[in-house]
Amino acid sequence: MTHSVSVDIVSDLVCPWCWLGKRHWDQARKLTADIKVETVWRPYQLDPTLAREGRPYKDYMREKFSGAEASGRWKAMRDHLEQAGPAAGIDFRFDDIAMRPNTLDAHRLMRWAGGQGRTAEMAEALFSAFFAQGRDIGDRDTLAALAGDAGLDSAVTADLLATDKDEKAVWEEELFYRKLGVSGVPTYIFNGRFAVSGAQEPAVLADAIRQAVKEPAETE
Fold first, then answer.
1. Distance CA 13, CA 107 (A)
2. Residues 145-160: what's their mean pLDDT?
3. Which residues of 75-97 are buried (b: 16+ CB within 10 A; e: fewer)?
4. pLDDT tens-digit profile of 110-143?
5. Helix (H) or strand (E) holding 190
6. CB–CB of 103/45 below 8 Å?
7. What is the pLDDT of residue 90?
8. Helix 202-214 to helix 16-31 angle, to the nearest 10 degrees?
9. Residue (of 131, 111, 133) closest to 122 by Cα position
10. pTM score
């Protein structure tokens, strides 16, 4: 009997490694096209303390990576991402980012996209908007427009964003994964049995999918 594979991808929409990880995941799926995989995107806020209106990006990063050692670490990471991006079809434009947004609303949007089977499209739209276009994905008008780009109803999305719908659900889901021990993203959880962390290469993720076939979820 061939078991299907369930994969939870825990991520944040302002994590550059998560966009790289998504592109690697897309490639891994092509390498394992013969295996049925259900992918579910899960919320994780890298900075849940950030004000809902966000902060100027340069100020935020300067504070986060203050000191020579931290600054050097960020530069090395940024250089690596800018070099690795093109191979995955990504053009990171960090200098064009104006705001570091709070991502709670973006995660609500991902949740609604999931209800319509559009999470892959929604994630791609959000990552691209933030990292390649310098758009503020904490701004609700921007989010409503991006929802339309991903195949959702932008007017309905705008109305929902004006409420607190699913805020509590997003917080609770994030807390669940934090309690599981997720402390960095992206994290891929296969059949609820084992996890792979980081923006691993497509071949590594493909191997994990094949391994998950041999380790089905306990409910199966």
1. 8
2. 98
3. eeebeebeebbeebebebeeeeb
4. 999 999 999 999 999 999 999 999 999 999 999 9
5. strand 187-190
6. yes
7. 97
8. 60
9. 111
10. 0.95
Q: Residue 210: which H helix or E strand, with range?
A: helix 202-214
Asked whether the beta carbons of 95 and 75 are under 8 A apart, the reply is: no
Radius of gyration from C-alpha coordinates of the chain = 17
For residue 5, the cross-strand partners are 37
The gap from C-alpha 152 to its chain's centroid, in whole angstroms, comes to 18
Q: How far apart are CA 121 and CA 195, in angstroms?
A: 24
Q: Any idea which residue has 């980012």 for tokens?
A: 97
Locus of tokens 């929802």: 147
123 is written with which tokens?
């994630």
Tokens of 23: 């592109």
Q: What is the pLDDT of residues 29-43, one digit of tens each?
A: 999 999 999 999 999
Domains and CATH numbers, the chain: 5-214 (3.40.30.10)
Backbone angles phi, psi at 74, to 5 degrees: -65, -40
Residue 148's Cβ-count burial label (10 Å; 0-12, 13-18, 19+) is middle
For residue 166, the one-letter residue type is D
Q: Per the structure block, which two tokens stand in for 177?
A: 């994964």
Distance separating alpha carbons of residues 52 and 34, to the nearest angstrom = 43
- Rounded to an integer, what distance in angstroms lies between the CA atom of residue 110 and that of residue 124? 11
Residue 91 confidence (pLDDT): 94
Report how far residue 172's alpha carbon sits from residue 53's, in angstroms, rounded to the nearest whole number. Answer: 21
Question: At CB < 8 A and 24+ separation, what contacts does 69-74 make?
Answer: none
